[in-house]
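Support case: zinc ion complex. Customer-provided input:
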Amino acid sequence: MAKSKSAYICSECGYESPKWYGKCPGCGEWNTMNEEFVTTASKVVEQKVRSVSSYSKPLKLKEITTGDEFRYKTGIGELDNVLGGGIVKGSLVLIGGDPGIGKSTILLQVCQNLGSQINILYVSGEESRRQIKLRADRLGVTGDILIMTETDVEVVSEQIKTIKPELVIIDSIQTMNLTQLNSSPGSVTQVRECTNLLMRTAKALEIPVIVVGHVNKDGAIAGPKVLEHIVDAVLYFEGDKQLTYRILRAVKNRFGSTNEIGVFEMTYNGLKEVSNPSLLLLSGRPTGVSGTCVACTMEGSRPILAEVQALATNSGYGTARRMSTGFDYNRMNLLIAVLEKKGGYYFAGADTYVNVVGGFKLDERAVDLCVALALVSSLKDIPVPEDVIAFGEIGLAGEIRSVSHAEKRINEAARLGFKRCILPFYNLKNLSKDISGDIELFGVRSVRQAVKIIME
Ligand SMILES: Nc1ncnc2c1ncn2[C@@H]1O[C@H](COP(=O)(O)OP(=O)(O)O)[C@@H](O)[C@H]1O
Ligand SMILES: [Mg+2]
Ligand SMILES: [Zn+2]
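Agent response - structure generated as follows:
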């Protein structure tokens, strides 16, 4: 017998409380607590216990063979990379992202590439067969895949058991529904229990399942965060919807590194892999103007160049405005404080803005120097020459500290035609010999020294 009691659950993080809060005590989001009927169903629990014992008989460590980790290559190199080499058999992968970012698109493209080798079951609770067919036609997907439009997760689970496909795609988890539960589809309880049921089915039969989860800002449906701890891998699609490129990032991966990213461009025919993201991010860069500088950041094992722009203008009355897009706001304030105290560059009376071009996010300390140079360049209204690239962490004493992967950053800059590189003095001293290309290196100990080299 299923008994229900009501509780308030946060759709962002899954925080549960008997009482309503305007602001979730768990994650601090506003208006995300919704009333749900939590089923203390003996049936659901029973099922769990029974199926766990059926596939997890204790084994001695030495009895376990490691040859088991079989991977399906999706045929999309960037995606395989982010997954750590392909989809692991029996794994549960969550792909999250804003609606319209391209989750269904990339999964249909996976079907095209893999469909000829294995049996794929594509379950959609959002679109009709016709809509899926229309999209498949647009993307040129002709693969032999099974399309099922269903929202009852138990029916889906039964179908998986009978068809025994080699890959299952659930688009999206928020449309799935377990009829035993009283709460509506998309609620935290539903999303969690549906995922659990799919996981039990998948693990028992060793079928990998890819689950789509919408990120939704108004808290009406449960976000992918509430599932992060259940699934094996979590990939997020990021990107500005007004721009065409998308970044796929692993935030959790039990079978690979979480450092890798995949870069794609959204086109009429679907997502195209971008093998040279730096070129894309630097296209249309203004030359001969103050307040811009190119940074080199590491995304996993891969160097990416991005343009940082800064604007410092005289503010009118009252406190100066500061704003930062794509770079941490507090870090920007800290850099400004260091520039004032240690460099003698005063931003006190200036409205100051920092923007990373292309909607890209830079959250690595190594871009400090680049942001600082863009700021000083705008303040003094002297351009940073266009053939200059800079990287280095800035310490509170105003010193430039060394960063990792200096060689890779320099090589990427040289490859894209940069002629001068400003880098931490200690990086220059310890540089290994594998620098390719024609690029002049300047090791600096302070921002002042860097400014002297390129702006004076
Ligand atoms: N006819 C079209 N031509 C070009 N791009 C399209 C077309 N239809 C949809 N798209 C692109 O595909 C995106 C929708 O992707 P989709 O995979 O459905 O997103 P999600 O599943 O993440 O909600 C749209 O934002 C748009 O950029
Ligand atoms: Mg979709
Ligand atoms: Zn919360």
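The CA atoms of residues 152 and 412 lie 50 Å apart.

Case will auto-close in a few days if no follow-up is received.
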